[in-house]
């Protein structure tokens, strides 16, 4: 089944109009229509919003979309000491935008996600702010991990 058809059926089953779904998700009425007509593939972020509004299992939705569930490892899976060492190495600044606290909060993220064989070790860890991390998640969902890693390789120094 295609994603648009799947979403339309899920929405009808819940007796929710396109307009109501738009209000629930803050995604425009016209964009939702395009998604249901297969004219537009929803981003990972919008897929999550729709899944939440329609109470659909995210895993099913991502499968239909071809997105990997949980592409990005959360920082809390990193040992606190190692996390701290990475923060020191990266001078408590986001490696993408250069911002640090108190303006942004920092996360330690895996460069290559665990699901793709990435290990929790210094040369695979990087300090990112929450905003860049969010942007990165969306980037991977839209452009793919390979493209993301291409950028990361040139920009990130990862030795402790
Ligand atoms: Zn940043």
What spatial order of strands do you see in the largest sheet?
A: 1-2
Corresponding CATH architecture of the largest domain: Orthogonal Bundle
How many individual helices?
8
Let me know the number of strands: 2
Distance between the termini: 48 Å
Q: What share of the residues lie within helices?
A: 40-55%
> What does the average pLDDT come to?
84
The CATH topology name of the largest domain reads DNA Binding (I), subunit A
Radius of gyration: 18 Å
User: What kind of sheet is the major sheet?
Assistant: 2 strands, antiparallel
Instruction: Quote the beta fraction.
Output: 5-15%
* Uncertain runs: none
Shape: elongated
CATH C-level class of the largest domain is Mainly Alpha
Structural class: mainly alpha
The small molecules bound here are: zinc ion
Number of domains: 2
């Amino acid at each position: 089944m295609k994603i648009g058809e799947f979403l339309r059926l899920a929405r009808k089953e819940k007796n929710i109009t396109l307009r109501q779904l738009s209000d629930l998700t803050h995604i425009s009425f016209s964009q939702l229509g395009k998604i249901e007509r297969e004219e537009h593939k929803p981003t990972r972020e919008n897929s999550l919003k729709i899944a939440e509004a329609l109470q659909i299992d995210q895993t099913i939705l991502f499968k239909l979309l071809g997105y990997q569930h949980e592409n990005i490892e959360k920082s809390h899976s990193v040992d606190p000491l190692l996390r701290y060492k990475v923060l020191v190495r990266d001078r408590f600044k986001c490696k993408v935008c250069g911002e640090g606290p108190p303006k942004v909060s920092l996360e330690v993220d895996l460069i290559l996600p665990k699901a793709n064989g990435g290990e929790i070790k210094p040369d695979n860890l990087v300090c990112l702010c929450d905003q860049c991390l969010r942007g990165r998640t969306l980037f991977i969902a839209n452009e793919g991990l390979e493209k993301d890693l291409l950028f990361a390789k040139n920009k990130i120094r990862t030795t402790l």
